[in-house]
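Hey, I was hoping to borrow your eyes for a little while. A protein chain has come my way and I'm curious about its shape. Take your time with it, there's no hurry, and the full record follows here:
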Amino acid sequence: MLRSTAGAFFLYSIVYTIFFRPIDQFHNFSVTVASLLIIFGCFYYFFEIMFYDYYLEKQLWKIPDFWVATLLLLFFSSSFLFFAFFPKVIAMDAKLWGTLNFMLKLIGGTMYLSFGLVYYLPLLREGNQDDFPNDLATSKS
């Protein structure tokens, strides 16, 4: 499903660039659609966690994939709102626009920092192998 969605979005972006908006203009509608697709992907991941019991024997807060999906949902929800109303946002007062832009960058920076930490912190803990993601648990010496 992910490959077909990515392929469809790629085709959409090519068609949108060629026929509707030139490449030298900002494509806020494409960013809005991409944000919406990522939000739906996060909800699909949470749906699978709840109904298919993938992590039934594990504590969910120790699963790095859960935190990545949560942070993606947080960032792209705010990104979706920012870029969906982008023409209105840039028409605002420059100070307010700058504040909104800074908040979006702060959320994005926190997200990317957390991406590194959720996979790195289990390596710092001396615990059992259940705390590590599968690919890291087998490569630990």
Summary: The longest helix spans residues 94-124.
